């Protein structure tokens, strides 16, 4: 059935994860086995696909699966079922199953060994009359392969399943030894057909969660990011490793391709009972490249955009570079036209995140209702500190200006030392430009979604060319 749903199955790689090097430069996710165990256990409690197999969960607190479903009155083992062949036990049927306890072991080179421990309750009338109640302990052992679906998502598929019948307790009633043996033999034959479909349906629920890796994340007016698996998943003793490829597209649907760093990323080791996602540098550069090509980094700054304590008139400019004004009278309003014609450069190293934005700054003066006139043009480099903060779905960025360096490109009067303007321009940019930037970068850097693992409270580490988020399982 599962093979019919997925048209392609690729087995997991037979090697364990590489030793800390991310060769493909994608978004690396290392999901701890505890998270997979939680997803499987939770699928048994509330998974709609599982309920279709087992019937209605009547009491989650007690962990009992209702007698009105497949297991009880009129179900697989009720009157007319397999026990119908034994006249003395014709009324014996399965009334309840205790919510299974899940344990799993990762198998490098194959997949996962999933074990379920549960108890099956049987009720009926004994051969001598009176209520007959039995409880049988059952261990379900299954081998699950991990691979990639045709859609490019991680996939769990049941390869082998068996049941081991444990101790059978007689809670009430009388059951002669020969009939007790019949019950034991019948359960041994029937339980695999009953409980192994439970495992298959359970994996179906988890596969829906794994399918969320393949998602399209909007980037506001900029475009979108689509996540898919870049390579075959890898598996170690403690975690599964997914190399996820983020494809950035413009609003028009064009794929945005920015150069990737020439060296592989050295990913720090993952501690036990934690999950980890590594976000590569090029994803930051790609988002800022989209901002630049969309014109979101350009601005015209007029006196109305700055507070009164930030001067923006020829009088204030004359105090810094009088030679730049020529015979222009004081008291004229200034206009700063800032244009970013090249893509910014994001840097992640030495535990610090910065972005360098090259800009042409045209300084003009104007009289209201008249066309502004150019005074001079500067070539500037703005270096901004980037504070990074994770949420459940993305990395948020907050920028602050660290420094500004400018050189004179052209002047309509005489040449001057443009460095004398850096402090003044820095104040203008902090007041008018940085707040606009922070609104534009609110789109953030999207994070992949794997098994509902939330990185909202993750520890954040900036390494060379990447950001690593780590959260306890």
Automatic annotation (TrEMBL):
Please state the span of the N-terminal signal peptide per the UniProt entry. Answer: 1-20
Q: Tell me where in this chain the Lipid-binding serum glycoprotein C-terminal domain is found.
A: 271-471
Q: Which InterPro entries match?
A: Bactericidal_perm-incr_a/b_dom, BPI_fold-BPI/LBP, Lipid-bd_serum_glycop_C, Lipid-bd_serum_glycop_N
This protein's UniProt keywords: Disulfide bond, Glycoprotein, Secreted, Signal
A single Pfam family it belongs to is LBP_BPI_CETP_C
Lipid-binding serum glycoprotein N-terminal domain residues are 30-272
Localization in the cell: Secreted
Q: Which GO terms describe its molecular function?
A: lipid binding
Q: Quick one: a GO cellular component term?
A: cytoplasm
- Which family would the database say this protein is a member of? Belongs to the BPI/LBP/Plunc superfamily. BPI/LBP family.
Q: What does this protein do?
A: May have the capacity to recognize and bind specific classes of odorants. May act as a carrier molecule, transporting odorants across the mucus layer to access receptor sites. May serve as a primary defense mechanism by recognizing and removing potentially harmful odorants or pathogenic microorganisms from the mucosa or clearing excess odorant from mucus to enable new odorant stimuli to be received.
In Swiss-Prot or TrEMBL terms, this protein is called BPI fold-containing family B member 3
Q: Which organism is it from?
A: Loxodonta africana
């Amino acid at each position: 059935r599962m093979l019919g749903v997925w048209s392609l199955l690729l087995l997991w790689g037979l090697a364990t994860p590489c030793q800390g090097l991310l060769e493909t430069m994608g978004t690396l996710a290392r999901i701890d086995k505890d998270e997979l165990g939680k997803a499987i256990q939770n699928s048994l409690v509330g998974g709609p696909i599982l309920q279709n197999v087992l019937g209605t969960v009547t009491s989650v607190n007690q962990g009992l699966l209702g007698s009105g479903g497949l297991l009880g009155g009129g179900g697989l083992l009720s009157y007319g079922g397999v026990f119908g062949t034994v006249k003395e036990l014709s009324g014996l049927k399965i009334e309840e199953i205790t919510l299974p306890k899940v344990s799993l072991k990762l198998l490098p080179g194959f997949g996962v060994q999933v074990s379920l421990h549960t108890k099956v309750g049987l009720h009926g009338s004994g051969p001598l009359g009176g209520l007959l109640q039995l409880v049988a302990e059952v261990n379900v052992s299954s081998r699950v392969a991990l691979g990639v679906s045709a859609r490019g998502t991680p996939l769990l598929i049941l390869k082998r399943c068996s049941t081991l019948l444990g101790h059978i307790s007689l809670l009430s009633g009388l059951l002669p030894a020969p009939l007790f043996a019949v019950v034991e033999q019948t359960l041994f034959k029937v339980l695999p057909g009953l409980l192994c479909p439970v495992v298959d349906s359970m994996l179906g629920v988890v596969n829906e969660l794994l399918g969320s890796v393949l998602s399209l994340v909007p980037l506001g007016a900029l475009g979108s990011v689509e996540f898919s698996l870049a390579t075959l998943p890898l598996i170690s003793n403690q975690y599964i490793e997914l190399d996820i490829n983020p494809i950035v597209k413009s609003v028009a649907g064009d794929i945005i391709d920015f150069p990737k760093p020439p060296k592989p990323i050295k990913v720090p080791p993952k501690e036990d009972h934690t999950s980890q996602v590594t976000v590569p540098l090029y994803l930051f550069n790609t988002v800022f490249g989209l901002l630049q090509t969309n014109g979101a980094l350009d601005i015209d700054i007029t006196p109305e955009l700055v507070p009164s304590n930030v001067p923006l008139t020829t009088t204030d400019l004359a105090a810094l570079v009088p030679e730049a004004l020529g015979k222009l009278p004081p008291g004229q309003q200034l206009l700063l036209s800032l244009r970013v014609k090249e893509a910014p450069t994001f840097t992640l190293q030495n535990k610090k995140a910065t972005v360098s934005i090259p800009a042409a700054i045209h300084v003009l003066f104007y009289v209201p209702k008249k066309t502004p006139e150019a005074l001079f043009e500067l070539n500037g480099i703005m270096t901004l500190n980037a504070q990074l903060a994770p949420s459940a779905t993305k990395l948020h960025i907050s920028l602050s200006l660290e420094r500004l360096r400018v050189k004179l490109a052209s002047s309509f009067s005489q040449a001057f030392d443009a460095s004398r303007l850096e402090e003044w321009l820095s104040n203008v940019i902090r007041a008018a430009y940085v707040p606009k930037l922070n609104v534009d970068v609110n789109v953030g850097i999207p994070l992949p979604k794997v098994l509902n693992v939330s990185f909202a409270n993750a520890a954040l580490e900036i390494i060379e060319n990447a950001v690593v988020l780590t959260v306890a399982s």
